[in-house]
Design goal:
- 2 copies of one chain form a homodimer.
- Chain A is mainly alpha-helical.
- The first copy, chain A, has 2 domains: about 1-50, Arc Repressor Mutant, subunit A (Orthogonal Bundle), CATH 1.10.10.60; about 60-210, Orthogonal Bundle (Tetracycline Repressor, domain 2), CATH 1.10.357.10.
- Helices cover about 80% and strands about 0% of the residues of chain A.
- Chain A has 11 helices and no strands.
- In chain A, α1 packs across α6 (about 100-110).
- At the A-B interface, α1, α6, α7, α9 and α10 of A face α1, α6, α7, α9 and α10 of B.
- The structure holds a DNA duplex.
DNA sequence: TATACCTTTGGCCAAACGGTTAAACTACAA
DNA sequence: TTGTAGTTTAACCGTTTGGCCAAAGGTATA
């Protein structure tokens, strides 16, 4: 990865580290590899970020920060539920198409180290002033309003939310399985498959919760 | 992990290695840790399994073998589609409740090393004489038959299959997120949440594909 | 030019790692 | 009791790892 002219060494390191950590995880990444790919000395990594752990946390937090604002905007938007679902699925798939490794990365590191996760989460939310619980409370309210009005079937908000997230995220983390077993290991077929899901998934969800 | 009396050292090592590899992954696992948890000398690991890689592959294959027979039986069963979906979701959730770390483990290792994985896959299927493509062809046929009969909405089989798998597997790989953000970090709430999904998910799927 | 500060480098280190080897232990048959 | 094959151990090896340090390079200011 080559450094662009108007980029500081510090941020260049972060970009390269992002790339390597995402593909190989914390344990699988070598500081030497980051240094080599950034075209610098290994000592320089420690000069800017002191330890591997600290560099990793910077990368990890950044991976989150890219997502949350967009997701949040979609969730708290003041539009009808069905439209919101369509917009959310569309947006989420588009982001993930551009950052396909992030979900598997986040999931693995969260499972590996769920102790530290709580702290990392807190600092992320504090940094960005994102009140997650409030966000979901609003969404919960909107969903249950539709349930009471008889516009959608009775379903617990958390279950619906997890369903939506599952349908959006899983196809990316399970890419090797889907591509390998269902799509003849053909990259193009996989990309087409994902593109089609933008509509398939929102139709699926809306069909599932619509009153017949 | 203590060794039971009627258990050979060799299989005891495998059990302990399974436990450690599943939680920490290939890169995150130390041979010394497996030895310590098994209460044996590190050299003994190499005596029985020669290298870390070989031990890992044994564990990885075993993780798959536990799953496939049950899954296969459900998929090729000669029962109506809706019943099949209900049975599949129920079975899958029950297996995953007992082996919650397997999905994240498999996904991570597949993403980390999809080159070797192809070979491992082949040998697994050869060992167990499982013709996966045939399995999915049969399921595809059953689904499209229902589509043509007008019993379910028009949906591509692969999309439906991925939807089902997403809804079953994702809640386990994303446990830290779901539990942490949606369920107040309460283990019991998470377990209840998963238990409820056995019915929620199959209702959701069937509702989604039913003709209104 | 001289000074001071920030950046970058190469050399180095102790610890941890996967793996090897030779010797010791064990059980059992001759 | 001795021989033998399978099992287990302690000591050790070469390499890799994350991290440290002192010195060199660069640049702006006085």
């Amino acid at each position: 990865m080559s450094k662009s002219k108007n980029e500081t060494t510090e941020s260049h390191i972060l970009n390269v580290a992002h790339e390597v950590f995402l593909k190989k995880g914390l344990d699988g990444t070598r500081m030497q590899e980051i240094a080599d790919k950034a075209g610098i000395n290994k000592s320089l990594l420690h000069y800017y970020y002191r330890t591997k752990q600290k560099l990793f946390e910077k990368v990890f937090k950044l991976a989150f920060k890219h997502f949350f604002p967009v997701v949040k905007a979609n969730i708290i938007a003041d539009i009808p539920l069905f439209e919101k679902i369509e917009a959310f699925v569309e947006t989420y798939y588009s982001i993930l198409q551009k950052n396909p490794y992030i979900p598997a990365f986040v999931i693995h590191e969260l499972n590996r180290n769920s102790a530290n996760v709580a702290e990392i989460f807190k600092s992320i939310f504090q940094d960005n002033n994102m009140e997650v619980e409030l966000m979901f409370d609003e969404l919960d309210e909107q969903i249950q309003k539709e349930v009471k009005k008889g516009n959608i079937i009775a379903i617990e908000s958390r279950q619906l939310i997890v369903n939506i997230l599952s349908l959006c995220i899983f196809p990316f983390v399970a890419k090797p399985i889907i591509k390998g077993i269902l799509l003849e290991n053909d990259e193009l077929k996989y990309k087409t498959f994902i593109e089609e899901r933008k509509k398939v998934v929102s139709q699926f969800i809306i069909s599932a919760i619509s009153i017949r």
